[in-house]
Amino acid sequence: MARPSNAGALRDAGLANAMALGTSASAAVSAAVTSAVATAARAWCVVALGATLALLPQRAAAQGAAQVAAQGAAQVAAQGAAQVAAQVAAQATDLRAYELVGDTIPQPLTATPGDAARGRAIVADRRAGLCLLCHSGPIPEERAQGNLAPSLAGAGSRYSAAQLRLRIVDARRLNPDTIMPPAHRVDGLAQVGAAWRGRPLLSAQQVEDVVAYLATLKE
Q1: How many other CB atoms are found less than 10 A from the CB of residue 153?
Q2: Helix (H, G, I), strand (E, B) or coil at 71
Q3: What's this model's pTM, rounded to 2 decimal places?
Q4: Vertex 170: Cα angle to 165 and 172 (nearest 5)
Q5: For a 10 Å CB count at each end of the chain, is N or C smaller?
Q6: CA dist list (Å): 35 to 28, 32, 43
Q7: What are the residues facing 101 on neighbouring strands?
Q8: 34-50 burial, b if ≥16 CB within 10 A, otherwise e?
Q9: Which phi-psi region, left, alpha or beta, contains residue 191 (left: φ > 0; alpha: ψ -120 to 50)?
Q10: What pLDDT score does 76 carry?
Q11: CB 184 within 8 A of CB 202
């Protein structure tokens, strides 16, 4: 009877050892899996950090370029506004005194002689001289021309340069009821557009350029 008891004890001991080994193996496998996962996680973090660090210079460069572009646009806009303001101020202070003699202004408004080519461009440009809004003239490329005032064709035969100068500067000196706006006067005017308030329609040099052009229009 003693042998069976010993055999049972040995069997129980074997089972206990097997269970202990199984438990140890499971723990080892779990530890290995945990270690592998942690290692993989660390590796992924390193890769992600490296990718992020690699993108930082590109992002910084892009942001820097955008900031530079924005600053450049702002500077250009500010410079453009300053230039326009300077031009308006220059024209506003470009009023020249002149002396009337009969129906003429004998002396040029500037020391620089008028340029006929520039004068023609001013006459043809409705935004500059406004001439063709009311007048017609020998400028064939401008199809839409006015018919409210006499044609400019032959103006150089009908008037002297001194007479043309007065008619451009302020035709109301000759006819208070004329519809022709004074090109070189800022006071005593009504219904002046906002863009022209406080400055003459034409600068002194532009007046001389237009005079030079009109003087070439002979019949």
Answers
A1: 16
A2: helix
A3: 0.58
A4: 130
A5: N
A6: 10, 5, 12
A7: 104
A8: eeeeeeeeeeeeeeeee
A9: left
A10: 46
A11: yes
Determine phi and psi for 15, rounding to 5 degrees. Answer: -65, -40
Q: Which two tokens stand for residue 141?
A: 């490329």
Distance CA 155, CA 183 (A): 17
Alpha helices, DSSP H only, in 111-203?
116-124, 155-158, 161-170
Specify the amino acid at residue 131: C
Q: Dihedral sign for Cα 112, 114, 118, 121, please.
A: positive
For 171, the token pair is 């035709």
Rounded to 10 degrees, what is the CA torsion of 134, 139, 144, 146? 20
Cα separation, 162 vs 99, in Å, equals 11
Which two structure tokens, joined as six digits, stand for 162? Answer: 């001194």
Render pLDDT for 65-85 as a digit per residue (tens, 0 to 9).
Answer: 566 456 655 654 556 555 544
Q: Which two tokens stand for residue 24?
A: 């140890």
Taking alpha carbons only, the member of 143, 111, 149, 114 closest to residue 131 is 149
Helix, strand, coil percentages (3-state) for the chain, rounded to 5, are 60, 0, 40
